[in-house]
Design goal:
The chain is mainly alpha-helical. The protein is 46% helix and 8% strand. It folds into 3 domains: 35 residues, no CATH class; 52 residues, no CATH class; 60 residues, no CATH class. The two termini are 52 Å apart.
Length: 163
């Protein structure tokens, strides 16, 4: 019935049951009104009435990608679907905290790994460090300082650094 009901009269004509040739319509057991729904809540931002849209990510989806997708969609539709003078504020973005926590985790993993390498070098008492170890530490330090720490561990871009 999707798309077939356009008016309250169309809804009234829905047959619920047909017993012995006598149809029972929805209008026979219910009152059908064509009206607007009463406001259930009010939203204000900076002292002005606003329209809110809550976007909830699906279970198993990436919160950071979802947030970036919403921001990209808003920017792409500014002046196309949305009027140019429409002010769009994104509030309650949980991906900011997730990015920060993820970056802290990746930094801790890298620092821990470097410390393990240093401790192994000290306690193994090798006269000279191996070439592969030197190159690896140089690579890790270079990646750590390049503002894309998560790329090293995850293999994908997680952190978007300002240019």
């Amino acid at each position: 019935m999707k798309g077939q009901l356009k008016t309250a009269f169309d809804i009234k004509k829905i047959v619920l049951r047909n017993t012995g040739g006598a149809p029972i319509y929805l209008k026979d057991i219910a009152e059908i009104k064509d009206t607007t729904k009463e406001k259930e809540s009010y939203a204000r931002l900076d002292g002005k009435n606003v329209v809110t849209l809550n976007i909830i990510k699906r279970s198993g989806e990436n919160l950071i990608e979802t947030s970036e997708g919403v921001q990209k969609t808003v920017e792409e539709n500014r002046g196309v679907i949305f009027p140019k003078q429409l002010k769009v504020d994104i509030t309650g973005d949980l991906s900011i905290k997730t990015r920060s926590s993820f970056n802290d985790l990746v930094t801790s993993i890298i620092i821990g790994f470097i410390l393990v390498l240093i401790i192994l070098d000290v306690f193994m008492a090798l006269p000279t460090p191996s070439l592969s170890r030197c190159l690896f530490v140089k690579y890790v330090l270079w990646r750590l300082c390049s503002c894309r720490r998560a790329d090293l561990v995850v293999g994908t871009t997680i952190v978007h650094c300002p240019r």
